[in-house]
Structure formats: structure tokens, C-alpha cells
Automatic annotation (TrEMBL):
The gene is ahcY. Pfam families: AdoHcyase (PF05221), AdoHcyase_NAD (PF00670). This is Adenosylhomocysteinase. Its EC number is 3.13.2.1. Belongs to the adenosylhomocysteinase family. Pathway: Amino-acid biosynthesis; L-homocysteine biosynthesis; L-homocysteine from S-adenosyl-L-homocysteine: step 1/1. GO terms for cellular component: cytosol. It is found in: Cytoplasm. NAD(+) binds at residues 159-161, 193, 222-229, 245, 280, 301-303, 348, 355. Residues 193-354 form the S-adenosyl-L-homocysteine hydrolase NAD binding domain. SUPFAM superfamilies: Formate/glycerate dehydrogenase catalytic domain-like, NAD(P)-binding Rossmann-fold domains. PROSITE patterns: ADOHCYASE_1, ADOHCYASE_2. NCBIfam families: ahcY, PRK05476.2-3.
Length: 426
């Protein structure tokens, strides 16, 4: 680990010697991020973040590197910390420090104490804007650093669970600044949560285990955006997918999409593989572990490591053994074993590289433009959750289509008139 070694740049990364590899990989990711590239080029000219301190708490990946570089091009004084102890790509962290002069505090596999210390370091930067992924930095600010609240212009939140936490803060009257809801932009969750999580979750499972998915009975817990993508891609690889839900509408949707739907208690003895993507707590619990098949594989791709009750599993287990990277076998007193991937943390970011760059291009375009919107509206927005403006969302989609070389139709004058009138019926 190198701490504070680069000239005058504070950082905590694994090894600055990894920078050349990081550089190569960041460049590769850039091929699939044309929308963010255009935004970065504009930021470089207009410098919207001159004099603004930004803290980004995101997965430190090749894609996040492009966001950090775009913010820096826009004049921001920013630092980057990890939003998850297992997702950091150490070569990327090294490259951002060594080649781009961006302070990074993130090491793959850091313990919870280090993770929390990095959150404190981020707040020591006295941010004006917080880019959060799960709301850990904002929650810490609100709880522990009230004296800094007056520095804050706003926050932009990346993920579903972060939005849930921000809503809870608003309800409790403790959120005193505006929050941009990046997750709910159409060009974010339609693509990132669905296609990104769908592909990268299975990528993580395959990299961790090398199992064949064809013919495997696979439970997907939660049929929200992430669950739909995961179930769709698991089926595409030949898995026999069962969905569990608590929402009757989502459950009907899953049924009509052709999946079997049943409670976890019924699914537990049937499946070879379990994937949780609910954002909820203890979706797989001791009573489920007890009836699982010997060698069943369990993993999570939702926020935080609480969807699977690993504490109870650990307490029951007579032995916990590393059997492959990111793969641990828990032996139960019954003689059966349960295999847990990625310590119950997001498997797509722990064992694979997270979402592919092409979807993060749109997610991070929303982040970059969300930050710019906050700066442009400094002092004008009441505390609350704000959608990314619809025209920004559409512009991102337009730019993405353009970059893909795809044209679409435009309304004719006759069509405009028709859809705006109520007089012409059947
Ligand atoms: P969502 O709200 O669209 O879907 C969650 C679904 O889980 C809902 O349909 C809900 O009814 C269901 N659910 C809740 N409790 C349940 C339970 N006990 N059993 C079964 N189903 C239950 O949210 P989403 O956008 O799909 O996100 C899900 C989680 O994944 C969030 O924590 C989010 O932050 C995270 N996320 C992860 C990634 C990733 O890279 N792995 C990407 C985006 C979002
Ligand atoms: N702090 C939370 C993070 C939630 S992760 C935790 O540790 O559980 C979910 C978010 O990760 C998604 O909203 C998605 O946008 C983001 N993500 C997925 N792949 C990524 C990638 N390649 N680079 C950066 N962020 C990514």
C-alpha cells in the first residue's frame, strides 16, 4: 500500500506501480463511453466546477475513472473514495492518482474500519457536492458533521437504496439540501439496473465459480429493475428461473414474463443457485439455508451485504473454507454445505468488473449533468429529491443513439396536431 507518496497528493491506494495497467484499462473503457466524453469536452471549455469541491463515493472502476476525469476537466477540486470495500480496481485507483492527479482513497478488500475512515477523509475535504452511491457519505454528514451542512450545494445519488435512504432522511426532516435522483432517470435505471446488473451479475457468478448455468434451477429474489435483468439473462443462459417477490404487481409481471413465482420457503429446497436483488434485509435466512440442497450457491447483487443473513449462517457453520477467490463454503451440522459468493456483497462488483462501460456511460452522464444542474441552481433549490430534468434525460438518450449510429423518426406536423387534439376520435 502506498500512502501519501505521490508528490503533494494525499491518497491511499494499493500500489502506484499498477498505474500503467489502470491507464490501459481506462482507455479501453472510454471506447464505450462517448456520451460522457462529449460532456467532458464541454466541461473542459466551460469549467462549470471551478472553485467547487466534490466528493465522489463510487465503485472505483474504469467507468468511474471517466466520471472523475470529466469532473476534473470541469475544474472541480474532487476526491474519490470507494462505495464498497470489495469493488475497487486497484490499478484504476493508482492511475487516477499517478496520471490524473486525482486523490483516491480506496483499496480492494479494505476492512470496514478503513472504509469508514475513508468516508471521514472525504468529509474532511469539506465538499460542496457529494456524489453518493448508497448514501453513506450523506448519512455520515447528516449524523456527524452538522457544522459542514452550510458548505453543501447538494448531492447526486446513484442507486435505488440510496434514494430510499434519502427519502427516509427527508421524512425525518434531516435533509437540509437538494438531492438529484440520478437512479430514477430513465437513461439510468432502464439500462444500468436492468441490462447492467443482468449481465454483470451473471458475469460475477461465472468468474467466481465457473459453473454452467444451463439447466441450473436459479432463484432470483426481487423482480424490480435489477431482478428483471438478472432473471432475463439467467434464462438466456439456460437456467430454469424461479422469482420470489413481496409485491403482487411485480409478481404478476414475473408470471406473465414466463417465470415460476413462489415464496422463498418453497423455492429454497429446489434451487442450485440463489441471487438476491431486493435492497431488503435477510431475504435468505436460517430456515431457508436448512432446507437447501447440498452445495447450493448463494449470492447477492443488491445494495449492502445484508440480503443474505450471513451472521446466522456463520454462527451455525462448523467450518468456513475458501474454495476459490470470492467463494466460501459453509459446512452445516447436518453435513450439507452452502456456498456463499463475494461475502454476500454485490457479486457483480466483487468478482467481476461491475456494469460494462456502455451502460455506465449513461449513468455517469446523468451524474455529471446532475452536478452541473446543482451548481447552476445554487441557492435556488429547496431541500428535497429532484428528478434529472426530462430534457436532459432525453438528450442523453439522443447522444447515445447518435454514438451508436442509430436514427429515429420525428413527428410529422399532422401527427403533432393529432396527438395534441381531443376533437378527432374514432
Ligand atoms: P427495485 O425497487 O426496482 O426492486 C426491488 C424489488 O425487490 C421490488 O420489486 C420489491 O418488491 C422486491 N422485494 C423487496 N423485498 C423483498 C423480499 N423480501 N423478497 C422478495 N422481493 C422483495 O430496485 P432495483 O433498482 O431493482 O434495485 C435493487 C437493489 O439493487 C437495490 O439495493 C439497488 O441499490 C441495488 N443495485 C445494484 C446494482 C448492482 O450493480 N449490483 C445496480 C443497481 C442497483
Ligand atoms: N454502496 C453500495 C453500492 C450500491 S451498488 C454497496 O456497496 O452495496 C449499485 C450501483 O453500482 C448501481 O446503481 C450502479 O450504477 C453502480 N455500478 C455498477 N457497475 C459499476 C461500474 N462498473 N462502475 C461504477 N459504478 C457501477
Amino acid at each position: 500500500m502506498t500512502a501519501t507518496a505521490a508528490p503533494q497528493l494525499k491518497h491511499e491506494v494499493k500500489d502506484l506501480a499498477l498505474a500503467p495497467l489502470g491507464n490501459q484499462r481506462i482507455e479501453w473503457a472510454g471506447r464505450e463511453m462517448p456520451v460522457l466524453k462529449q460532456i467532458r469536452d464541454r466541461f473542459a471549455k466551460e469549467k462549470p466546477f471551478e472553485g467547487i469541491r466534490i466528493v465522489a463515493c463510487c465503485h472505483v472502476t474504469t467507468e468511474t475513472a471517466h466520471l472523475a476525469i470529466a469532473l476534473k476537466a470541469g475544474g472541480a477540486d474532487s476526491i474519490l473514495i470507494a462505495s464498497n470495500p470489495l469493488s475497487t480496481q486497484d490499478d484504476v485507483a493508482a492511475c487516477l492518482v499517478a496520471d490524473y492527479g486525482i486523490p483516491v482513497f480506496a483499496i480492494k478488500g479494505e476492512d470496514s474500519e478503513t472504509y469508514n475512515r475513508h468516508v471521514q477523509i472525504a468529509l474532511d475535504h469539506r465538499p460542496n457536492i457529494i456524489i453518493d452511491d448508497g448514501s453513506d457519505v450523506v448519512a455520515t454528514l447528516v449524523k456527524e458533521r452538522k457544522e459542514q451542512l452550510s458548505d453543501i450545494i447538494g448531492t447526486t445519488e446513484e442507486t435505488t437504496t440510496g434514494i430510499v435512504r434519502l427519502r427516509a432522511m427527508l421524512n425525518d426532516g434531516v435533509l437540509s439540501f437538494p438531492a438529484m435522483n440520478v437512479n430514477d432517470a430513465d437513461t439510468k435505471h432502464f439500462f444500468d439496473n436492468r441490462y447492467g446488473t443482468g449481465q454483470s451479475t451473471l458475469d460475477g457468478i461465472i468468474r467466481a465459480t465457473n459453473v454452467l448455468l444451463a439447466g441450473k434451477t436459479t432463484v432470483v429474489a426481487g423482480y424490480g429493475w435489477c431482478g428483471k435483468g438478472t432473471a432475463m439473462r439467467a434464462r438466456g443462459l439456460g437456467a430454469n428461473v424461479i422469482v420470489t417477490e413481496i409485491d403482487p404487481i411485480k409478481a404478476i409481471e414475473a408470471v406473465m414474463d414466463g417465470f415460476r413465482v413462489m415464496p422463498m420457503a418453497e423455492a429454497a429446497p429446489l434451487a442450485d443457485l440463489f441471487i438476491t436483488v431486493t435492497g431488503n434485509k435477510h431475504v435468505i435466512r436460517p430456515e431457508h439455508f436448512e432446507v437447501m440442497k447440498d452445495g447450493a450457491i448463494v449470492c447477492n447483487s443488491g445494495h449492502f451485504d445484508i440480503e443474505i443473513d450471513l451472521k446466522s449462517l456463520g454462527a451455525k457453520a462448523s467450518e468456513v473454507k475458501d474454495v476459490r477467490p470470492f467463494t466460501q463454503q459453509y459446512k452445516l451440522p447436518s453435513g450439507k454445505s452452502v456456498v456463499v459468493l463475494g461475502e454476500g456483497r454485490l457479486i457483480n462488483l466483487a468478482a467481476a468488473e461491475g456494469h460494462p462501460s456502455a451502460v455506465m456511460d449513461m449513468s455517469f452522464a446523468n451524474q455529471a449533468l446532475g452536478c452541473e444542474y446543482l451548481v447552476k441552481n445554487t441557492g435556488k433549490l429547496e431541500p428535497g429529491l429532484y428528478s434529472i430534468p426530462a430534457e436532459v434525460d432525453k438528450d442523453i438518450a439522443r447522444l447515445k443513439l447518435q454514438a451508436m449510429g442509430i436514427q429515429i423518426d420525428t413527428l410529422t406536423a399532422e401527427q403533432v396536431e393529432y396527438i395534441n387534439s381531443w376533437t378527432s376520435g374514432t
